[in-house]
What we know:
The complex is a heterodimer. By secondary structure, chain A is α+β, with helices and mostly antiparallel strands. Chain A folds into three domains: about 25-125 and about 200-290, Aldehyde Oxidoreductase, domain 3; about 295-450 and about 600-760, Aldehyde oxidase/xanthine dehydrogenase, molybdopterin binding domain (Aldehyde Oxidoreductase, domain 4); about 455-595, Aldehyde Oxidoreductase, domain 4 (2-Layer Sandwich). Chain A is globular and about 85 Å long. By secondary structure, chain B is α+β, with helices and mostly antiparallel strands. Chain B has two domains: about 20-90, Ubiquitin-like (UB roll), CATH 3.10.20; about 95-170, DNA polymerase, domain 1 (Orthogonal Bundle), CATH 1.10.150.120. Helices cover about 35% and strands about 10% of the residues of chain B. The N and C termini of chain B lie far apart (about 55 Å). The interface between A and B is large, with 57 and 51 residues.
Amino acid sequence: MASAFDxxxxxxxxxxxxxxxxxxxxxxxVAGMLHAKVLRSPHAHAAIVAIDASAAAxxxxxRAVLTAAELPSGILPHYGYIxxxxxxxxxxxxxxxxxxxxxxxAEDEAAAAEALERIxxxxxxxxxxxxxxxxxxxxxxxxxxxxxxxxxxxxxAGARGALRPRSNVSYEFAYRTGDPAAFERCxxxxxxxxxxxxxxxxxxxxxxxxxxxxxxxxxVWTSTQNPFPLRRExxxxxxxxxxxxxxxxxxxxxxxxxxSNCKTEPVAIVLSLMTGRPVRWCMTFEESFxxxxxxxALLRLRTGVMGDGRLVARxxxxxxxxGAYSGASPLVAEKCGYRIxxxxxxxxxxxxxxxxxxxxxxxxxxxxxxxxQATWASESQIDMIARRLGITPYAMRAQNLLRLGDPFVPGxxxxxxxxxxxxxxxxxxxxxxxxxxxRGVGFAIGLKDGGGINKAAQAxxxxxxxxxxxxxxATVEAGQGARSSLCQIAAEVLNxxxxxxxxxxxxxxxxxxxxxxxxxxxxxxxxxxxxxxxERVRDDVLRFTATAxxxxxxxxxxxxxxxxxxxxxxxxxxxxxxxxxxxxxxFTADGFQKAPLDARAPLDSPCVFWEIGWAAVVVxxxxxxGKVTIEQLVVSGDAGKAINPLVCxxxxxxxxxxxxxxxxxxxxxxxxxxxxxxxxxxxxxxxAEDVPASFVSILQEQGRGPGPFGAKGxxxxxxxxxxxxxxxxxxxxxxxRITELPISxxxxxxxxxxxxxxxxxxxx
Amino acid sequence: xxxxxxxxRQLDGEDAPPLRFVLNGIERAETVPARMSLWELLHDExxxxxxxxxxxxxxxxxxxxxxxxxxxxSCSTFxxxxxxxxxxxxxxxxxxGHPLCEAFAARSAFQCGYCTSGMIVLAKALLDRDPHPARQxxxxxxxxxxxxxxxxxxxxxxxxxxxEAVTDG
Lengths: 764, 169
């Protein structure tokens, strides 16, 4: 039988997704359900003076109108991962243009929409802070005059967190290691500032959920990445035991981090409590832009080096634009700050990353999770320093790269990919680049800790009488192919055809417990739980078979639901029927995975693996217009062992194209707190024609991952290095350094127009 | 208020004339409210859930269907407007075993799957017009739809492979 990891093995959802048979949260209906719509604030910051919803309630078909005054007594109406500051509907204050002021449940969406138009809200506009700089300015208006509740997570050596360390900062992460005197030994210290743009996830399936709730229990069907954490948050808010909250998750139509924690659920739950009916809330596409985004960032790096280019010390001060509510921002700050060293050795690291509250769309988890911001600044500055010292960017990296087996920082997991080999691979793939005016080469390496912190996962593997295998686990399929990879892992262990393995729907009442589908963790963390369960059930089957055949289990091996012993081949189905009678039986075993706690690790437990993205680009810069064209793009990631090579390729290329978009054009544009392009017609995402003329992704399988069969996670590395690689190539091409994204024609043209004529330098 | 279509027929109420059209090769008759979109008709009335609603603005192409062979955004098309026309959806293409479905499945030219029906329907229209499209033609044609997951290269390759299969078949 062919390996379960062969390139010819199809994703388990291939048939359904290419025939129109796949159904998503948007396709679900519950008998008797109502439809919700919400009224959103037109102001970036305002006090709510009065709301009159009486005319809305009178619209035919309307069953409930929710404002802060109708929130049920006794609930905790705020949510968030670490800082719980986001209300179900605005309470007294709106904090961004798009904040939810009221919600309506009606027999259909049209009636709900009509009712919204009849809600009268009197606002008293407040001064707004809509950028990082404005929020941090002396005397800036505060989004939260009273500090919202929150709990700092436990950290290990060198790391600390602080709630509200200063006005308009909801959380600050800091990490320090090594000898502070290191800066004094440096030949040069360079200070540079970088700005990172903000993209929207643009998942094609909108935010959608259905809730059916009473004061005793809640059931939701929702598009989320993290069913069990959502269950816990809803149970806390609505003061119910976790076991009285049931979260069902269908196929998710794209997420990229967006569909984490509460989104549609709290509003739908309260409306269901008010009406006694199930309530569906499907946001419009435009509402995604009011719900979540990536973090814009200001990053200041101070890096000390020796004259030969050896990196010695780095200090970073990073400000993330968290938007109006904290959401996942503290966790992103933690990772952005922590990842600022990049893949290099230093004697001293001192990094601080803050969540700055602004009157804009709340920011949250987004593919890369702080790593894209850190890599943009770090990999840009590495090139800048190299050029200032007169050494090549390649030589600069080569002498400072962490080697296989080096710890990232003390107490942390050792580097598990050959970083240098990957860099050589992508550069070599570019081939001979013909030098021409306006053409330049750049490269970059992104690195992030993968697999999540202290993540726990459980799985169950079941085998029916006839040998059909079912996996129960709560890994969410949002397109990344994880559930299919888990089937392949079980098939390999059980030596069964992959198409005999299915994975059951997610429902927190029945699915084994899991911390969530994020941090590129599924194949490694859940994969190990599935591997353990599959090995256990395999051993159970072999023991049963050996007893039935009167031999030792060690003499047997499984093959396509037969027990093979030398030249004998016994049908296990027949042995089961003989033992259990005509009804048959089902073998079942559980598996569990969790990284150990370790106080020496800065983030409480060592990371599971290192996710790396390598990129090399050739750009052409039009001096007349400033337009940058990516003529060649080579990206690579290390899957350790590719469970599904085509799925890996798709992850790497999809992530890389998000990086291309961020590098060149895609961004949310705000003006005085108003989102100017929050509409699919004007918000530009990459299309097929935006793919570089030469685009190559190289799948590495270096074989050192901690996951099943040597696998590593693979979903995020591709986005990390692209923007910096492009900026580095632009400097190589025309001698200007762009430190703010996107690298738009206007920005490049402006830089070129300010350029001194002599500085067109080309470094190989 | 009575609502009529562009040629003056009443569209609301019991007097509305039935809409007749050919859906995936089968003649259908249905009475539809004036403001019902073609997507609503397909999804809610006929239970054809393969056509995905995303941006609702006729921009992303997820809800693409073929109307007389032309790819159209069903979210932005009135149901009544397909009277007398032929509508083909992903379900019809799949039932007919179109090589595009097989090529997308075999080559993993999808991830979350939300754009996939629209991409396949869009590509079908291309192959009907140009059975041997150049790669650049495929790239330009597919650029009317959005895929946020794949980075497009694998979709382009699947369409080219399907073109080969159509030729070979």
